[in-house]
Write a structure and sequence with these properties.
The chain is of the alpha/beta class. The chain is built from 10 helices and 9 strands. Strands 4-3-5-9-6-8-7 form a 7-stranded mixed sheet, sandwiched between helices. Strands 1-2 form a two-stranded antiparallel ribbon. The chain is rod-shaped. The relative contact order is 0.15. The C terminus is likely disordered.
């Protein structure tokens, strides 16, 4: 059975004859008669009563007519949806996500929703190595990653940059500075998680250590507390903003002048698909809001002030592999509940 045969069947019914149906369909009457005959033979039914004066539906034809119209309507809707998907106005974008920082990701998705309301975003939380593997295999359309991981076979498109923050004892002389350069902290032991927890971030910040390694890093809150309670044996750690953490009176948190942490969009090489094109367009639309800070990294949000309003603090990263706090689940991207993480 072909859609063409069903179209001919409906046209003959609505026009009341083979000749008028042929005119409507821009074909010859013999072609219409032949296709109706093929349809009747395939179904094993007689659909029309034929006389020299009129053509009418049989009982079988009357029963099948609404079904034929439903099939043709479904085919037309399928073509409409396919066109929407091809244009990126509909479909599903499977996006590997990271938590935070701030509301950058939320605003990016809001821009995407404004551009393509029919496009569904399916966020997926995975460790970074699994996230990148899912992009390579086609299970994900794209993935957000930090600190430029090793990603053979993929393109890494820079999206935005975030400042790193240092935590040190509140009574240390360096705590009086509004911001710190890493060279100022080089003489203090640096507390870091093991490299296998997150190689890209570890490789980014490990060169900041100029003194022997500090005490073991446990989790962010415990480490910040320990730093503040050890003024006679000072050490420091480094992280960046995701969400608020408890205010610790004995621990000072100061922005670092460098390095910055870049967030990338990992994609397969080659022309992007329709859904990914919409995401890239949303990314570009957000960029003028802040202006690109560098030629190789586009900021999607306005620069954040160094001095924070009362009650706002510094969080930690959520892109952790290996030892970490329990993952809150795949919907964490859309949750505004604070999660305390460290890279």
């Amino acid at each position: 059975m072909e859609l063409r045969q069903l179209r001919y069947f409906v046209a003959v019914t609505e026009e009341g004859g083979f000749g008028r149906a042929a005119e409507r369909l821009h074909t010859v009457q013999s072609a219409v008669s032949r296709q109706i005959g093929l349809l009747e033979r395939e179904l094993g039914l007689v659909l029309f009563t034929r006389t020299t004066r009129r053509v009418g539906l049989t009982g079988a034809g009357e029963r099948l007519l609404p079904e034929a119209r439903a099939v043709l309507a479904a085919a037309a809707r399928t073509r409409e949806v396919a066109a929407e998907v091809a244009a990126g106005a509909s479909g599903v974008l499977r996006l590997g996500t990271v938590q935070g920082p701030g509301d950058r990701v939320h605003r990016l998705l809001q821009e995407l929703a404004a551009r393509a309301p029919g496009l569904q975003v399916r966020p997926v939380r995975l460790p970074v190595t699994e996230r990148l593997a899912a992009v390579r295999s086609g299970e994900l359309d794209a993935a957000l990653v930090r600190a430029r991981p090793d990603a053979p076979g993929l393109e890494l498109l820079p999206l935005w940059r975030d400042r790193l923050y240092a935590a040190l004892p509140g009574g240390h002389p360096l705590a009086r500075a509004a911001e710190l350069g890493p060279e100022q902290l080089a003489h203090l032991p640096l507390r870091l998680a093991a490299r296998e927890a997150n190689p890209p971030f570890h490789d980014l910040v490990a060169p900041l250590a100029g003194a022997p390694a500090g005490p073991p890093f446990t989790d962010l809150l415990a480490t910040l507390t320990s730093i503040g309670e050890s003024p006679l044996d000072p050490s420091w750690t480094v992280f960046y903003e995701v969400g608020p953490v408890p205010k610790l009176p004995r621990t000072a948190i100061r922005p670092l002048t460098r390095p910055a942490l870049t967030t990338y969009l990992a994609v397969l090489p080659g022309p992007p698909g329709p859904a990914l094109r919409q995401l890239l367009a949303a990314t570009a639309a957000r960029a003028p809001e802040a202006g690109a800070r560098t030629a190789d990294a586009v900021d999607l949000a306005r620069p954040r002030p160094t001095h924070r309003p009362q009650g706002q603090h510094i969080g930690a990263d959520g892109d952790v592999q290996g030892q970490r706090q329990p993952d809150p689940g795949p919907d964490v991207l859309l949750s505004r509940d604070p999660q305390i993480r460290h890279l």
